[in-house]
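Reader question, answered in our methods column.
A reader sent in the components of a multi-part assembly and asked whether the whole thing could be modeled at once rather than chain by chain. We filled in our standard form and ran it. Here is what they sent:
COMPLEX SIZE: two components
ENTRIES:
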Amino acid sequence: KAGVTQTPRYLIKTRGQQVTLSCSPISGHRSVSWYQQTPGQGLQFLFEYFSETQRNKGNFPGRFSGRQFSNSRSEMNVSTLELGDSALYLCASQPEGGPLTGELFFGEGSRLTVL
Amino acid sequence: GESVGLHLPTLSVQEGDNSIINCAYSNSASDYFIWYKQESGKGPQFIIDIRSNMDKRQGQRVTVLLNKTVKHLSLQIAATQPGDSAVYFCAESTGGGNKLTFGTGTQLKVEL
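And here is the structure of the entire assembly that came back:
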């Protein structure tokens, strides 16, 4: 079974631009979560989608948005990029939509550099 | 507020020794605590989790202990191997769903 696939793996943008990151969950997984990882802040929850609906949202500004498609694939978008948005963006999927299982399957991430 | 913190940023152990990685948490309402391992260039990988109504859970070479009285979580790795070298994160599940609050991470280095 293929793992969580994130594209692109690496990208460089300049301040003020926007970026869209894509995540294909493991086949059959319906829940997709996004996390931002930086050396300073560590791993921080962005949002979670299940059945095309945002179920949870972290404490990030409105410049960060996401969506999920009917095939469970997900995208996240960051508009008006700032230098501080440079990070590894991780997507994780889970087989069931139920809460409190703890086991997420992470992709290898998309490394975003903002210049 | 919610916070999960680690006591030590780096832990060096000899191959074959047991490793203990510690974690403190502050949200007594958390339902699940989870340990993840992250190797360089990869995403975090689930190791083991424990419900808040449990004190101990064992897996293959790993044991997680939960002390709710002092809000402390630990991960024990038996017979540590070079392949165990990674950053280890504790996380807590808050509010249901898959919103996890991660700790800052501990770098485990296994010396031959």
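What stands out: DSSP finds no helices and eleven strands in chain B. Chain B touches chain A through 25 residues (CB under 8 Å).
Send us your own complexes using the same form.
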